Amino acid sequence: MYNCIYCKRQYLKNTEHVFPLGLGGENIMIECVCGQCNNEFSKLERELYQKSPVALIRSIEGVIGNKSRNTVSAFKASLLLCQDDVTGVVYEVGQSEKMQVYIRPQIIHINNIFYVETDQQDNLNTLMMKFKAWKSDNLRLILKFPESNLMNTEYLEIEKTENSYFHKKVKGELKIKNEIILGLLPRSHHLNKSLHTRIYLDDEKNLRIRAKTDKAAIKFILDLLKFSDSKELMTSYVSDTKNMNEVSVGFNFDSKKCEQAMVKIALNSIFHYYPDSRDQSAVQPYLDFVKNGNKTFSAGIETKNHILDSQTNSHNIFLYQTESFLSIRLSLFNGQFVYQFLIPCLQLLRVHKFTQITIDYKRNKNQINDHI
Predict the structure, then answer these.
(1) What is the pLDDT, as a whole number, of residue 159?
(2) Is the pLDDT of residue 67 over 60?
(3) Domain check: are 186 and 156 in the same one?
(4) For residues 31 and 15, what is the distance between their CA atoms, to the nearest angstrom?
(5) Residues with Cβ < 8 Å from 165, sequence gap 6 or more?
(6) Which of 15, 182, 227, 324 has the most CB within a 10 Å radius?
(7) Contact 9, 38 (CB under 8 A)
(8) 258 and 241 housed in the same domain
């Protein structure tokens, strides 16, 4: 039996990695985190390495999070757009390994004509099948999700009578199942003026509409429904999409969850290499922050140090001991993202001793190095 340092329950099997596999850590387990807490913390980690700027670096570096899958981790951006340098048309794009982009399957409304675009025929077939199923069984468009449990979902309900479509806006509880979801491009975005309304498939193969306004999205979906009844064929607006040299990236992540993940990652390594630290009361406020999000300490993002962060293909956790505190510096991807915090009254090393924990994310190896 093991004791969970976070929830204090006893458990049988270790499932929490010392350093996340998703960031290229070694496949070794820590012996003080239960499966239930591990499941909760996995959500924090995914916020960090799938949605935040760390996710973009991870994808560019080509990190393979799980060796058994042998696939490069993709960046799940909430917004990836490319603009054709010749036509000025803005396209939804997806991203595969090492930031290689492709045109998502999408139907775009340009000058009152519907055009279909994609780099991948199979995904286009999926888009058409999804839309056909939505038209047959759903006919709801999510306009706005509730911002709190006390608010209702705003959505459009569409009905067909003979050859016409009628719609009404509804506010209420809605069990989400295959609805189309609207995403508005902010007016402040530099591609807003060039955007034409479109429907496309996201990373999870869900139908989404991108538009400037609710009004534009509603007009688009009603026009598309009528067009689909006509059985007319769509063509591509442009046959060559090689004129797109710039990707516009949008981030949508919870900064607190990312910070909780970074503190947890650092603590895991400390608990693994210095097991006696688990019993020290000084770490309790940091455990509480990871578990509940209640922050009572100071921390912050730091800049790259060209001496400390000179090692390639690595994450590093630097520990420095003073008489009154332990300094912890988490450096991800050779210092491209650095987070630092102090734990007062935590004594792990000799005073003025410096220790470095290195994770080679290309070889998936963890290593500790002691320095004077």
Answers:
(1) 95
(2) no
(3) yes
(4) 9
(5) 158, 159, 222, 225, 226
(6) 182
(7) no
(8) no
One domain for residues 245 and 257 = no
Residue 151: pLDDT band by 50, 70, 90 thresholds?
A: confident
Predicted local confidence at residue 183, as pLDDT: 94
Cβ within 8 Å of residue 84, ≥6 positions away = 90, 91, 238, 241, 243, 244
Determine the structural domain holding residue 340 and report its residue range. Answer: 2-71+253-371
Please indicate, yes or no, whether residues 204 and 165 belong to a single structural domain of this protein. yes
Domain end, chosen from 227, 250, 273, is at 250
Three-class secondary structure assignment of the chain: CEECCCCCCEECCCCCECCCHHHCCCCCECCCCCHHHHHHHHHHHHHHHHHCHHHHHHHHHCCCCCCCCCCCCCCCCCEEEEECCCCCCEEEEEECHHHCEEECCEEEEECCEEEEECCCHHHHHHHHHHHHHHHHHCCEEEEECCCCCCCCEEEEEEEEECCEEEEEEEEECCCCCCCEEEEECCCCCCCHHHCCCEEEECCCCCEEEEECCHHHHHHHHHHHHHHHHHCCCCECCCCCCCCCCCEEEECCCCHHHHHHHHHHHHHHHHHHHCHHHHHCHHHHHHHHHHHHCCCCCCEEEECCCCCCCCCCCEEEEEEEECCCEEEEEEEECCCCEEEEEEEECCCCCCCCCEEEEEEECCCCEEEEEEEC
Pick the more confident residue, 320 or 242.
Answer: 320
272 and 244 belong to one structural domain: no
Residues 268 and 181 in one domain: no
Domain count for the chain? 2
One domain for residues 196 and 67: no
Among 220, 250, 280, the domain boundary falls at 250
